[in-house]
Design a protein that fits this description.
Number of strands: 16
Helix content: 40-55%
Strand order of the largest sheet: 1-8-7-3-4-5-6-2
CATH architecture of the largest domain: Alpha-Beta Barrel
Structural class: alpha/beta
CATH superfamily of the largest domain: Phosphoenolpyruvate-binding domains
CATH topology of the largest domain: TIM Barrel
CATH class of the largest domain: Alpha Beta
Shape: globular
Radius of gyration: 25 Å
Strand content: 5-15%
Distance between the termini: 29 Å
Bound molecules: phosphoenolpyruvate, magnesium ion
């Protein structure tokens, strides 16, 4: 590293507070075929065009085979079979035929692969699942024909900062996360899927960092989620301070006492998870239970709806992994930002306002039936005294009537503890009637902010509106908490806002009884809560509610928080 160069820093929105220093690996987008490459300008070019296309395919087949030899287990098998697809003589014949009809080599590869994808999709099942691999063959071959850099995820040979314009859920899922030191994207928002996965895994992440994909591949970069900055060629002092912060975070993680304020008011600290492995990896007593199991994550790649028989063992394993702790399983939240192939709806103008989450019960009631049946079977396999810890909750509930129908169905399937998420302002406004139907509610602030502020959570450009410190959002959370206190029923928060230590104080002061977040965020929240009395939390909540804007609300909370905690955790930085 040079210390004479000026650090080049790009600002974005940080996710969490962690940091990393590692070389940059850029994810290239799929190539776009320029209009003048669609057709051959001269039929006499057909022969060299065929040569170019078939050579590109052969090189892609070799490349996937080479990667297969280095890749472990199942990934190696997938890469080998993808190499076989690139070498398929039928594909070569289709490409030759298209070139004979005057298509350019890149367009012929694109069209021929498209034909095979259509055939596989029509065949359905496992065949259809291979379409993604074929698309990857197409993108690599077309890029070679056009002389562009290889598209898609880079092959990570060492811990790297992975950077992209945006990452789809499928891109993120196929990354070798053990070698991802940090994630940086140019677009996306702090509650989008990349941010959620990064939080889940404790990977430092900065979204909306404009221009980061222009930093040359391999450059050493420092990613600081607390300040939302990405610095190319960082100097020694920056690297030193980031390492010191990492040591502080590690020290806090050694404390696993139950969540409580300084004067002993309990606030259960729970984990948000997306897979059974996430639960298995929770250290003993790091979390007091699972506050949100996003079950749609289990089925991101499934093309057919999972049967109850396929789901039951998954939930049984999840319950076993939770070792007797309360486990809140959310029913499938498909649609809008979480598309699932088997739950696709008629095209909608505004999917976030359409048939998503619990509303799928209107069009595909069998999905909920099968899931509740599977969960009921897993719960009934537990000793009867242990069944109450199996909690189910529905996403995107808008009315007390929806809550009533959901609760009746869940109980009929043998799940004793039933709740719903409060993510829609209508449900917050009518929290008392919703609570009358269920045993608990959990506020999903990611969606509650989106719907309260009428700002798409995937559009990071509206992040000032998407701020959970917006007083209107705090008002709604306060209403729900008051309704919970009056009904003597638990009110949790499981949106990403719960992982902000300062917000955790405000939520506690509002009367929220549990906070659920990605596990890496728990130590800082636990430490912060323990350093503040409930009375101080209530003052913080009151000050935030009285503010006129989100920045004022956060500043008001900061002014009342313990300066030692602020300094230790750098809460005065702009992390989200
Ligand atoms: C939320 O909306 O706050 C939430 C926890 O659900 P998700 O982020 O999965 O939509
Ligand atoms: Mg939600």
């Amino acid at each position: 590293m040079t210390t004479t160069d000026q650090p080049r820093t790009t600002s974005g929105l940080g996710v969490g507070r962690s940091a990393a220093v590692a070389p940059l690996a850029v994810v290239r987008p799929a190539p776009v075929i320029p209009p003048d490459a669609l057709r051959l300008s001269d039929p006499a070019d057909a022969w060299p065009a065929r040569e170019t296309a078939l050579r590109a395919l052969a090189e892609v087949a070799d490349e996937f085979l080479r990667r297969a030899t280095d890749a472990p287990g199942a990934l190696g098998d997938v890469l080998r079979s993808t190499s076989g697809m690139a070498a398929d003589p039928d594909l070569a014949d289709r490409i030759s035929a298209r070139i004979s009809r005057g298509e350019g080599p890149a367009a012929a590869v694109d069209g021929a692969v498209g034909e095979i994808i259509a055939l596989l999709s029509a065949a359905g099942g496992l065949f259809a699942e291979r379409s993604t691999d074929l698309r990857s063959v197409r993108d690599h071959a077309v890029a070679r024909v056009l002389g562009l850099p290889a598209p898609g995820l880079p092959e990570l040979r060492e811990p790297s900062v992975v950077c992209a314009v945006d990452l789809s859920p499928a891109d993120t899922a196929s990354l070798d996360l053990t070698r991802v030191a940090a994630l940086v994207t140019e677009s996306g928002g702090p509650t989008g899927h990349t941010a959620i996965i990064a939080r889940q895994l404790g990977i430092p992440c900065v979204v909306r960092a404009a221009g980061v994909t222009l930093i040359p591949e391999g450059t050493l970069v420092a990613v600081d989620a607390a300040t939302g900055t990405v610095t190319a060629d960082p100097d020694d002092s920056l690297v030193g301070s980031l390492r010191a912060r990492a040591r502080t975070e590690r020290a806090l993680a050694a404390d696993t006492a139950p969540g409580a304020t300084a004067d002993g008011r309990p606030v259960a600290l729970l984990a948000n998870v997306g897979t059974v492995e996430d639960i298995e990896q929770l250290g003993p007593s790091a979390a007091e239970g699972v506050g949100l199991f996003r079950t749609e994550v289990l089925f991101l790649d499934a093309v057919r709806a999972p049967s109850r028989d396929r789901q039951t063992p998954v939930y049984a394993r999840a319950l076993a992994a939770a070792r007797g702790a309360a486990t809140t399983i959310r029913t499938l939240d498909a649609g809008a930002d979480k598309p699932l192939a088997f739950a696709r709806q008629e095209p909608e103008e505004n999917p976030a306002l359409g048939v998503r989450g619990h509303r799928l019960v209107r069009t595909m009631p069998e999905l909920l039936e099968e899931q509740l049946a599977a969960l009921g079977a897993a719960a009934r396999a537990l000793p009867s005294a242990d069944r109450g810890r199996v909690r189910v909750m529905a996403p995107m509930i808008s009315t007390a009537e929806e809550a009533r129908v959901f609760a009746r169905l869940a109980r009929a399937h043998g799940v004793e503890t039933v709740g719903v998420m409060i993510e829609v302002p209508a449900a917050a406004l009518r929290a008392a009637s919703v609570l009358a139907e269920v045993d608990f509610v959990s506020v999903g602030t990611n969606d509650l902010v989106q719907y309260t502020m009428a700002a798409d959570r995937l559009t990071g450009g509206l992040h000032d509106l998407l701020d959970p410190w917006q007083p209107a959002v705090l008002d709604l959370v306060a209403m729900v908490a008051r309704a919970g206190t009056a009904a003597d029923k638990p009110v949790g928060v499981c949106g990403e806002s719960a992982s902000d230590p300062l917000m955790a104080l405000a939520l506690t002061g509002l009367g929220v009884t549990s906070l659920s977040m990605s596990a890496p965020a728990l130590p800082a929240v636990r430490h912060t809560l323990r350093r503040h009395s409930f009375a101080r939390c209530a003052e913080i909540a009151e000050a935030a509610l009285s503010a006129r804007s989100a920045p004022e609300a956060r500043a008001a909370a900061l002014a009342l928080a313990d300066p030692d905690v602020i300094g230790l955790l750098r809460l005065d930085d702009a992390g989200v």
